[in-house]
Specification:
This protein is α/β, with parallel strands linked by helices and 160 residues long. The chain has one domain: 3-Layer(aba) Sandwich (Rossmann fold). It contains six helices and five strands, in the order βαβαβαβαβαα. The strands form two sheets. It has a three-stranded parallel beta sheet with strand order 1-2-3, sandwiched between helices. It has a two-stranded parallel sheet with strand order 4-5. The longest helix is centred in the middle third of the chain and has 17 residues. The radius of gyration is 15 Å and the shape is globular. The termini are far apart. The structure holds adenosine-5'-diphosphate. Adenosine-5'-diphosphate (ADP) binds next to α1, β4 and α5. Adenosine-5'-diphosphate binds next to α1, β4 and α5.
Length: 160
């Protein structure tokens, strides 16, 4: 049976840390759905459309990965799509408590839903979208932090 997993997140914007998790998941599973969270109570730096476009460019050479957006509860979205496995990246112990709570909450809401964690690559354990936004907006070099094919678009937006 073919296995589809979902990689949810804000991706504001996509980093090499995200791409590492997505790429590794794409080798382990038949289909990977990368789901961009649309949170109407928060204003992201990059619009939903921009986050989707950047992700699409970043995963261009991974044929079994598709980018979608979703609003509301992930557990409900997974039910609607018939997806039963979430794949997330764990950077450090600091991620663990929150992710552990989320995994349990999602299972309570949707008992068929499992969460799998992949350990972050040693080179990207420190990396987050907020760090990329901060460094770039202050004129720093983010070329080691974001996929090369979307670097210029991210810089153009953040230095506006
Ligand atoms: P953030 O805004 O913290 O960068 P997101 O909410 O967009 O992250 O994260 C989406 C998913 O990607 C989460 O599972 C998160 O743990 C994972 N992730 C984010 N950054 C990294 C990284 N540097 N290495 C591995 N996984 C990461």
């Amino acid at each position: 049976m073919s296995k589809t997993v979902i990689c949810p997140g804000s991706f504001d914007p996509v980093t090499l840390g995200h791409l590492d998790i997505i790429t590794r998941a794409s080798k382990m599973f038949d289909r990977v759905v990368v789901a961009v969270l649309v949170n109407s109570s928060k204003t992201p730096t990059f619009s939903t459309q921009e986050r989707i476009e950047l992700l699409n460019a970043a995963v261009g050479d991974l044929p079994n990965v598709e980018i979608v957006s979703f609003e509301g509860l992930l557990a409900e979205y997974c039910k609607t799509c018939g997806i039963s496995t979430i794949v997330k990246g764990l950077r450090a112990v600091s991620d663990f408590e929150y992710e552990f709570q989320m995994a349990i909450a999602n299972k309570k809401l949707n008992p068929g839903l499992e969460t799998i964690f992949l350990t972050a690559d040693a080179d990207s354990t420190f990396l987050s979208s907020s760090m990329v936004r901060e460094i770039c907006s202050m004129g720093g070099d983010i070329s080691n932090f974001v996929p090369a094919c979307v670097h210029d678009r991210i810089v153009a937006k953040l230095r506006k």
